[in-house]
Amino acid sequence: MKLITRDTDYAIRALSCIAGGAHKTVSVTDMAERLQMPRAFLRKILQTLSKKGFLESAKGRGGGFTLVVKPEKITVFDLVEIFQGPFHLNEHIFKGKGCPYVKICELKKKTDEIERNVIKELKTITVRSLVRKDS
User: Fold this and answer.
1) Per DSSP, what are the bridge partners of residue 94?
2) Which residues share a beta bridge with 97?
3) Cα separation of 63 and 78, whole Å?
4) DSSP string of 64-129, one letter each residue
5) The domain 6-85+126-130: what is its CATH number?
6) Are 66 and 25 within 8 A, CB to CB?
7) Residue 92: which of 80, 84, 101 has the closest Cα?
8) To bridge 77 with a disulfide, which of 27, 54, 108, 122 should be the other Cys (CB 3.0-4.6 Å)?
9) Is residue 134's pLDDT more than 60?
10) Per-chain mean pLDDT for the chain
11) What's the confidence (pLDDT) of residue 1?
12) Is residue 108 within 8 Å of residue 102, measured between CB atoms?
């Protein structure tokens, strides 16, 4: 199990790059080079973020992507949900069906508590907090 997948990681890095940049608009080519990511894959990530309302794109000379949402308002949890779906540590499945012991299962109680704590922590990590000071 991965807590943060490659898509989510690339989204975090891309948003941090834009937030920490000297220019409001950053081109995909510049970002791909700076972050050492495949350009096509990065473009897909940025388009998803644009569709979700985090970025705005501009075409042509001087074009690229600009943050629409303030970086202190974008959390790692937001990005996990966008690129990975609902966050669950344990779906509590037994033989392909919902477990009949779900209401009394001690393991479920423990994993639910861990899940709540992880979500709480991921919601405290903002893109602003991840921007490198030397950017």
Assistant:
1) 97
2) 94
3) 26
4) EEEESS-GGG-BHHHHHHHHH-S--S---EETTEE-TTTTT-HHHHHHHHHHHHHHHHHTT-BHHH
5) 1.10.10.10
6) yes
7) 101
8) 122
9) no
10) 90
11) 65
12) yes
Terminal-residue alpha carbon distance, the chain: 32
CB 61 within 8 A of CB 81: no
Which amino acid type is present at position 11? A
Domain ranges of the chain: 6-85+126-130
Give the span between the Cα atoms of 122 and 22, in whole angstroms: 27
**Maximum Cα–Cα distance across the chain:** 61
- CA-CA distances (angstroms) from residue 118 to 10, 27, 77? 20, 33, 9
Taking a C-beta distance cutoff of 8 angstroms, is the pair 102, 92 a contact?
yes
pTM of the model as a whole: 0.86
